[in-house]
Design brief:
52% helix; single chain
């Protein structure tokens, strides 16, 4: 094996968790997306047309419906929610896989290799993302043209960038609804990527059947430490970049991680998280990841955990939606009163608590 692979994460300067400066919004990976979006603006369909189009697997209509789901306009939301309600009975037929890892771990490279492997097996895959920072950075995850180019051109793959920022809960809800529509459009495997910097993992974890953590060997113990909470959530860990002069290191990290995982409480799934090594770059170890996921699904479908997790998630999303809606409706309705109250509180004319209770009472009256 040559030694010409670059492993910047091995250098002491490596800072996987550093937040990089945003870049200008690149063109979408999907060359037709812009046309589709402008198409939506010109011509919005009725609920029936959306539902029928999605059921037929029409990607144009699916894209338009997702744009509607992502819209914050009330009239769009009304149609979107009705489309989802009508689609729900046909949803749920996919394997939902969440993919996380620190920036630079190789998530997009992995998704490209994994995605190509799956479509070659006859699967149809949808790749979605949760990146609550995407609006601020203007460099939306999956939006970068250089990422997943090959997969983006695959007719059996559908790649959709993260909804642009709002609250994490809002972004996550939109992704979950997009996932439901993708399932109804016939995608049997959904991959949801998250940025791997802390909070979005929990949101992704609450909407997938299998949560995969992409790790790299040699990124430093402190980094792995930060990831501890996330490691506990993982149903499987893949140590990526096991190539070139990094193979031994990756194998060592694998052994260490597998030992470390024994210290965690056993997973409720009844399936012990496996640690694997792979090279997304050389496309090795990909099949083993898929087999691990299939094994997991078999085990959890047999022991009932698969369905239990999905119904727990449905409950979670009910509460999440209530929380999100309460907040956004409150702030919308009390917009003017909030301004006055804010000025009064800042001028010490009224206490924060009194102001808050008055506003809440006004909203609920
Ligand atoms: P992400 O930020 O987690 O999505 O990471 P990317 O997929 O953008 O990869 C970050 C860098 O690591 C890129 O320069 C990739 O070419 C490189 N990379 C990704 N996978 C591998 C791999 O399996 N082996 C090696 N040597 N490099 C990889």
């Amino acid at each position: 094996m040559g030694t010409d692979f670059e492993h910047p994460e091995n250098s002491p300067e490596y800072e996987g968790l550093k937040v990089n400066k945003g870049i200008a919004q690149p063109d979408p990976v999907n060359p037709n997306l812009a046309a589709r979006l402008s198409g939506l603006r010109k011509k919005e369909l009725g609920v029936d047309a959306y539902v029928n189009g999605i059921l037929k697997g029409d990607i144009n209509i699916l894209s338009q419906a997702i744009t509607l789901v992502e819209s914050s306009k009330t009239e769009h939301q009304t149609v979107a929610q009705e489309v989802i309600r009508r689609c729900l009975p046909s949803a749920g037929g996919s394997i939902r896989i969440g993919i996380t890892g620190v920036p630079g771990a190789g998530k997009s490279t992995f998704i490209e290799s994994f995605g190509k492997f799956l479509t070659a097996q006859g699967h149809r895959i949808a790749v979605l993302a949760i990146d609550p920072s995407s609006e601020r950075s203007k460099g939306s995850i999956l939006g970068d043209k250089t990422r997943m180019e090959e997969l983006a051109g695959d007719p059996h793959a559908y790649i959709r960038p993260s909804p642009s920022a709002g609250s994490l809960g809002g972004v996550a809800r939109k992704t979950r609804e997009a996932m439901i529509l993708c399932e109804v459009a016939g995608f049997d495997i959904i991959l949801i990527e998250t940025v791997g910097v802390g909070q979005s993992e929990t949101a992704v974890h609450s909407m997938v059947d299998f949560f995969l953590l992409v790790q790299i060997a040699g990124a430093g113990d402190e980094l792995q430490g930060i990831k501890r909470g996330i490691m506990e959530m993982a149903d499987g860990i893949v140590i990526n970049k096991a190539d070139g002069n990094n193979i031994q290191k990756a194998e060592l990290a694998k052994a260490q991680l597998q030992t470390a995982l024994h210290l965690f409480p056993p997973h409720e799934s009844g399936s012990e998280p496996k640690v694997l090594t792979a090279s997304a770059y050389e496309r090795r170890g990909i099949k083993e990841v898929w087999e691990t996921i299939l094994d997991y699904c078999n085990t959890t479908q047999q022991n009932g955990y698969f369905d239990k997790r999905r119904s727990e998630q449905a409950k979670y999303w009910m509460y999440e939606t209530i929380n999100e809606q309460l907040k956004s409706r409150f702030y919308e309705k009390e917009k003017e009163q909030l301004k006055t109250a804010e000025a009064n509180v800042m001028a010490n004319r009224i206490s924060s608590f009194t102001a808050a209770y008055e506003l809440l009472d006004d909203y609920f009256s």
